[in-house]
């Protein structure tokens, strides 16, 4: 069910946000997306996010990986294992390791039981940036692509590199952004400048190629033969690579780039760079059909997303709100926190007549806060007077 999913998105504005589906309170639609948490743990844009069970990891351009417990709604740890932007994060299927790839050329393996680095490949792609990592459904293999235009196969059993395949002078061109395993792991897809390639795992060769009218900006598998490609022109490309006679279906869902997609059990989450977040029901019959369930304008530039299956992860899909009453008797809902950024205003009377006041802002240690975006009017005025910008329900300091 759609109500058993939580969509996690990372934004250019440094926020990590969570959204769930609930029955709509209006008559014109059946469901709504509502925000379950927001956290401002990063100091630069969030480039990648990954989930596994109750765990969520986000990586940003601030060289930092932040890890959270989605059930307890608290931060677990900050990992400083890269010296550059974190380009890709992925958990192995059993959740025992978190694998990361960065612009510094490193590929790291972190144990999730203690969050200690188990292995680091300092020059995974000969010093070139590691752009994307995908783990085989069995958890025994991983594929990575880098700016050196090579596809590298990693043996996760012994923790070593197994094969290197050069992608230079291939049909994909000089830009390769994604490598994604199929659901069974029998195939994987590579995306290039204006085309996608389907490779057979057993043969280690290209078995199908599809041209795109714009650069692919995201890709996911619906089945072992059906693929969805999101493009920079805001259009979705549907095609079955096994049926050469079947025409591809193209539909426009956004006016701007489809930045991220994720498919889980008949549901597809999509995000655009303009801030639109939507959840679709995918009907995979003779032809793939999509029905939009709900959507929201986040108000931020969305860069990445992932989906957590709540019931499968042992998380209660029902939000139990904690009602807190403030001085103005306005009720707000707040989730469990492990600290937050607070702004204190000290008003000092420096003049004899008391007509002039200097406002001093103190910043406490910055930690993670999971909160809902509801703020009362009185607090808005107080924060604005302290030089704090409020937009879309999030508190952000103007430094």
TrEMBL record:
The keyword Secreted does not apply. Residues 346-399 are annotated as: Disordered. The keyword Phosphoprotein does not apply. Residues 357-367, 377-386 have a biased composition (Basic residues). It holds the Pfam family WD40. WD repeats lie at residues 79-107. Keywords: WD repeat. It comes from the Eukaryota. InterPro entries: PAK1-Kinase_Regulator, WD40/YVTN_repeat-like_dom_sf, WD40_repeat_dom_sf, WD40_rpt. Negatively regulates the PAK1 kinase. PAK1 is a member of the PAK kinase family, which has been shown to play a positive role in the regulation of signaling pathways involving MAPK8 and RELA. PAK1 exists as an inactive homodimer, which is activated by binding of small GTPases such as CDC42 to an N-terminal regulatory domain. PAK1IP1 also binds to the N-terminus of PAK1, and inhibits the specific activation of PAK1 by CDC42. May be involved in ribosomal large subunit assembly. This is CLUMA_CG016376, isoform A.
């Amino acid at each position: 069910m759609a109500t058993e999913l939580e969509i996690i998105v990372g934004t250019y504005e440094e926020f990590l946000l969570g959204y769930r589906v609930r029955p709509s309170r209006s008559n014109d639609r059946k469901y709504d997306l509502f925000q379950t948490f927001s956290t401002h743990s990063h100091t630069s844009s969030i480039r990648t996010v990954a989930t596994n069970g109750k765990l969520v990891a986000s990586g940003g351009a601030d060289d930092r990986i932040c890890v959270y417990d989605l059930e307890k709604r608290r931060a677990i740890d900050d990992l400083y294992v890269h010296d550059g932007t974190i380009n890709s994060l992925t958990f192995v299927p059993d959740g025992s390791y978190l694998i990361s790839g960065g612009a510094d050329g490193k590929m790291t393996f972190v144990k999730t039981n203690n969050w200690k680095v188990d292995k680091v490949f300092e020059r995974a792609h000969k010093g070139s940036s590691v752009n994307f990592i995908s783990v085989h459904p069995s958890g025994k293999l991983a594929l990575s692509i880098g700016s050196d235009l090579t596809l590298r196969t990693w043996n996760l059993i012994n923790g070593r590199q197994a094969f290197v395949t050069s992608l230079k002078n291939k049909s994909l061109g000089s830009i390769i952004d994604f490598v994604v395993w199929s659901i069974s792991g029998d195939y994987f897809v590579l995306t290039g400048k204006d085309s996608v390639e389907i490779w057979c795992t057993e043969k280690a060769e290209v078995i199908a190629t599809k041209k795109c009218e714009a650069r692919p900006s995201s890709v996911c598998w619906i089945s072992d033969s059906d693929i969805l490609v999101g493009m920079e022109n805001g259009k979705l490309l549907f095609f079955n690579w096994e049926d050469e006679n079947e025409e591809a279906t193209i539909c426009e869902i956004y006016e701007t780039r489809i930045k991220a997609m994720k498919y889980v059990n008949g549901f597809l989450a999509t995000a655009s760079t303009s801030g639109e977040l939507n959840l679709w029901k995918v009907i995979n019959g003779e032809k793939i059909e999509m029905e939009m369930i709900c959507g929201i304008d986040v108000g931020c530039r969305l860069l990445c997303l992932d989906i957590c299956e709540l019931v499968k992860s042992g998380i209660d899909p029902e939000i139990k709100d904690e009602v807190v009453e403030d001085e103005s008797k306005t009720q707000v809902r707040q989730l469990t926190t492990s600290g937050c950024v607070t702004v204190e205003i000290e008003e000092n009377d420096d003049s004899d007549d008391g007509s002039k006041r200097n406002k001093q802002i103190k910043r406490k240690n910055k930690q993670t806060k999971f909160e809902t975006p509801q703020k009362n009017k009185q607090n808005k005025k107080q924060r604005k007077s302290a030089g704090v910008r409020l937009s879309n329900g999030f508190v952000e300091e103007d430094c």
